[in-house]
Design brief:
- The protein is of the alpha+beta class.
- The chain has three domains: 22-56, no CATH class; 67-305; 325-486, no CATH class.
- It is 15% helix and 46% strand.
- It has a twelve-stranded mixed beta sheet with strand order 9-10-11-12-13-3-4-5-6-7-8-14. It has a six-stranded mixed beta sheet with strand order 18-23-22-28-25-26, with no helix packed on it. A four-stranded mixed beta sheet has the order 16-15-21-19, covered by helices on one side.
- The chain is globular and about 80 Å long.
- The relative contact order is 0.09.
């Protein structure tokens, strides 16, 4: 009887505990059965309700967050500092060589510093800091030259302990013209043109792009990290034949594995990791070679004034590389820079004529030997092309030359343009015999094309149904305007 009472009492206690648990509530303590979760962003890897329940972010939510940083980086031209560290190891049979590299790149307008140094890693796993096996530094800043402020560029090259320093005077805009390897734009450069209206579409286009580049296996994921940052991760793999080894009967294949992670936090790309591995596989094991590299890059959106100020700008000699940027317009279309003569020096009509001729902007596809190359164009100093160009006594840092193309009556011409930033730009001109064919794009195996890597978009304002290969017969004395587009885009 006593046992029965104990069991009954225990059952009552359990029931009370279960009921109590059932009615436990959030801070406002409504009954649990009536509670509706309100998940809030709390700066972590998941959203959280006041009751403690969590809810993971969806891929689309994560992508929307990450894409803000991507767009910011692609449009960012301000100050930044990137610090990259990497290791690489190459194994060939029993031979192993390893290296560690450190890169600092900081830029702000006309100020630039990039240091890039590689050290060997010994068998003990320690880096030999005493000798730079390879690398180069570049710094551009204003220095005092006997009381005159001038822009100087210093380049330092490292080669197995040997150090070479070179200095040159440059134009004030030189820093902004240098190739920046670790800028925010470059950190996501391969992700420019994909449809970003949704994560699914973005992944679809990215995969298609990588497959077109010979990647056989592509995986792309997006995750929210504990600090509320978001990582886009991609892995790519491909098998191929290395032409350097195909004559070796023991060679099997080359396997390439690549991966990257791009991290966005608070609307900016702040971190990137790159992995790369190449395996050269042979049936004889000691022939196998493996190359593995990993690099991490952290980026801050400020300029490193301390490192910039500390860089030594002294050199034994300083060459004059203060060059002019000579722009060229042809038949009213912008071509780009024709050449880079030394600023402040004479630049003659004869030199300009030679520079234009050696740029091979006009291509000869005719047989009339009486027509010389110089007969096909005239140089002018004004946009209206009324004043013949006679040269510059002292060419300025920014100068412009204008060119009119001349077409003999018995020949025909196709002016080829391409579009960049919404503007039609001059690519080249094809001068042909009467009745000659203009060709662009892939014309088929063994068939000549004037522009094999470019598809035709339109001819004299009439657009093709879609960009593609074209061929048409040209009439004497007629100039055609052909808009083309690089076939790889």
């Amino acid at each position: 009887m006593k046992n029965r009472r104990l069991k009954l009492l225990s059952a009552v206690i359990v029931a009370i505990l279960l009921l109590t648990a059932f009615f436990v509530s959030c801070d406002k303590k409504p009954p649990q059965s009536a509670h509706t979760h309100e998940f809030k962003e709390v700066g972590g890897a998941a959203k959280k309700c006041d009751c403690g329940e969590t809810l993971a972010y969806t891929d689309e939510e994560n992508f929307a967050y990450w894409n803000i940083g991507r767009k910011h980086s692609l449009n960012y031209d301000g100050a930044y500092t990137s610090a990259a560290t990497g290791t690489s190891t190459e194994t060939s049979g029993k031979d192993v060589s390893s290296y560690a590299d450190v890169v600092l790149e900081t830029a702000d307008g006309n100020k630039l510093l990039r240091t890039n140094r590689t050290h060997a890693i010994g068998a003990d796993g320690k880096t030999d800091e005493s000798k730079v096996t390879e690398g180069d530094d570049i710094c551009i800043k204003i220095v005092d030259d006997n009381g005159v402020s001038r822009n100087k560029k210093v380049r330092v090259e490292y080669d197995n302990g040997e150090v070479t320093r070179k200095g040159s005077w440059v134009r004030p805009t030189k820093a902004s013209e240098e190739t920046l390897h670790y800028s925010p734009k470059r950190l996501c450069a391969e992700l420019v043109d994909f449809d970003d209206s949704s994560f699914a579409k973005f992944v679809g286009e990215a995969k298609a792009f990588y497959v077109a580049q010979a990647a056989a296996d592509v995986t792309i994921t997006i995750v929210r990290n504990d600090d509320n940052s978001v990582s886009l991760k991609a892995t790519l793999a491909a098998d191929e034949k290395n032409p350097n080894y195909t004559s070796d009967k023991d060679y099997i294949k080359t396997t390439i594995e690549m991966g990257y992670e791009i991290v966005v936090k608070e609307g900016k790309i702040v971190y990137r990791v790159d992995d790369y591995a190449v395996h050269e596989l042979f049936s004889v094991e000691n022939k196998n070679t493996v190359y593995i590299r990993k690099q991490t890059t952290e980026i801050a959106y400020t300029f490193d004034e301390v490192a910039y100020a500390a860089f030594d700008m002294s050199t034994d000699t300083t060459e004059n590389n203060y060059t002019s940027l000579l722009k060229c317009y042809i038949n009213g279309y912008y071509y780009g820079y024709l050449t880079f003569p030394l600023a402040g020096e004479p630049y003659s009509k004869e030199q300009a004529t030679e520079d234009f001729a050696t740029a091979y902007i006009i291509e000869r596809h005719f047989h009339d030997e009486s027509v010389e190359y110089k007969d096909l164009y005239t140089l002018y100093s004004d946009a209206e092309m009324t004043t013949p160009f006679e040269g510059f006594d002292a060419i300025e840092e920014h100068a412009t030359i204008y060119v009119r193309l001349n077409l003999p009556e018995n020949l025909s011409m196709a002016i080829c343009l391409y579009e960049e930033n919404g503007e039609a730009r001059f690519k080249c001109a094809m001068v042909c015999d009467n009745g000659g064919n203009f060709t662009a794009g892939n014309q088929g195996d063994g068939v000549y094309s004037m522009l094999p890597d470019y598809n035709c978009v339109s001819v004299d304002g009439v657009a093709l149904d879609e960009p593609g290969a074209t061929k048409f017969t040209m009439e004497a004395g007629k100039t055609y305007i052909v808009v083309v587009k690089y076939a790889g885009n």
